Amino acid sequence: MTRHAKDWHPDDVLPDLLAINEHSWGALQRLGVDEETKLTLHFDYEGDDAAANQQLVDFLSRETDYDVKVASNGVTGSTGPRTLSLEALDEWVRWMVLAGYEHGRCKFDGWDSVVHT
């Protein structure tokens, strides 16, 4: 039986995503990133179908200033440059997970960053 993106719950994924945040933030700090460094976050969601993906894109477009679009197997996008802390990053990931869950059941698949110098 294939597990679909809709077959998940935020409580199933948040502990792992927050642990990844801690590791990633530590790696960024070792590279010289601090709470005053501007970062652009790129993110992806897994989605089961075009309607669910579009529902999430519509929501994120209304609620944020993110560049977001439907991708071949979900949703992809990026934030504008912003400063972060580990706490702010954790809060953002929680919000993104819930946004995906509540708007199309799209599963947040993580983020990567670009440092602005």
List keywords for this structure.
5 strands; 117 residues; alpha+beta; five-stranded antiparallel beta sheet; 3 helices
Protein architecture, described:
There is one protein chain. By secondary structure, the chain is an alpha+beta fold. The protein has one domain (10-31, 51-116). Helices cover 44% and strands 26% of the residues. The chain is built from 3 helices and 5 strands. It has helices at residues 10-30, 50-63, 86-102; strands at residues 38-46, 67-71, 74-78, 82-83, 107-116. Strands 1, 2, 3, 4 and 5 form a 5-stranded antiparallel sheet that branches. A hairpin with a 2-residue loop joins strand 2 (67-71) and strand 3 (74-78). Helix 1 (10-30) runs antiparallel to helix 3 (86-102). The radius of gyration is 14 Å and the shape is globular. The termini are far apart. The model has no long low-confidence stretch (mean pLDDT 93).
Give a short synopsis of this structure.
The protein has 3 helices and 5 strands, in the order αβαβββαβ. With 117 residues, it is α+β, with helices and mostly antiparallel strands.
Strand content: 25-35%
Helix content: 40-55%
User: How many discrete structural domains?
Assistant: 1
Note the overall shape: globular
Compute the average pLDDT: 93
Let me know the number of strands: 5
* Tally of DSSP helical segments: 3
Which regions are unreliable across 5 or more consecutive residues at pLDDT < 50?
none
What does the main sheet amount to? 5 strands, antiparallel
Computed CA radius of gyration, to the nearest angstrom: 14 Å
State the end-to-end CA separation.
47 Å
